[in-house]
Amino acid sequence: MRPNLPEDLSIGALSQATGVNIETIRYYEKIGLLPPPPRTEGRQRRYDGTAVRRLRFIRHARDLGFSVDAIRDLIAMAADPAASCSGADAIARAHLKDVERRIAQLAALRDEIARMLDHCGDGTIADCRVIEVLADHGQCLHEDHRTPA
Amino acid sequence: MRPNLPEDLSIGALSQATGVNIETIRYYEKIGLLPPPPRTEGRQRRYDGTAVRRLRFIRHARDLGFSVDAIRDLIAMAADPAASCSGADAIARAHLKDVERRIAQLAALRDEIARMLDHCGDGTIADCRVIEVLADHGQCLHEDHRTPA
DNA sequence: CTCCATATCTGTAAAGGCTACAGATATGGA
DNA sequence: TCCATATCTGTAGCCTTTACAGATATGGAG
After folding, report:
1. pTM above 0.70?
2. Which terminus of chain B faces fewer neighbouring Cβ atoms within 10 Å, N or C?
């Protein structure tokens, strides 16, 4: 069991509760990721448990590397529990592919850097392998170690 | 032996020779990564072999995921062949650490997404694990799968 | 030489995903 | 009531490019 979600949170309290920056919360509202909450008489935002859940959802998805657009789609789907989840599935599947690609690239990169360092004694720049390898792609083990978009 | 580097390249030819976008070359010049080259009478840029080498260095380091700031440091160091390479070594070592951290996070992320997908039948959103896991960090296998900065 | 299709020029704005300010207003506890 | 915080809006900046518009230069064909 998890504790009941709090009600009537200020934006600062929501920030505390979710680990999302205050500025970022307002930003998410502006771009339509978070619905505009009710306001106090003085026009300050007041959030409820639904907002906490939703913002946690967003933050978690961002942590997992989903783009804001993908999250928008996920939210739209989540809003309709009767719908088939094949849409969410497709998004996650595409994302999985992407993640696997990034891992492979980074692994190649790690090997490359490690190799540079292996060959770098405590000499001078003149024979520093780090500089040398960077200066000359021909010395690379891997042709393809571009970082992902 | 590598072929001699060409002289008197237009920006388009430099782009061809290095695989770096024309716009990006001008951008690198603007932020001081590339020195301003000499110009023709009509104020078009003309590059020599040094520029080719330098831009290849930059591109290669970018491909390896080094930040522009790190590259600036590396270039400054490379300019002094008599200096010790411990600085370059340190930059590469820090970068290696960072890459390894990212790999670990992405691996955790991959497992998490794969697990979500495993549990996602062709049912409805109501019992879709993708949505559910995203909505509730407590269901994660891993606490720590933030994407890197 | 002229002509003209390219290539290049500058400056500006967009992208994504925030973050940082300034100056005004609201809130809540002593 | 007073006042230190917190919050408000709006704008501008960050980073690394990429894209565009409108003007000018270049180099090869005739």
Report:
1. yes
2. N
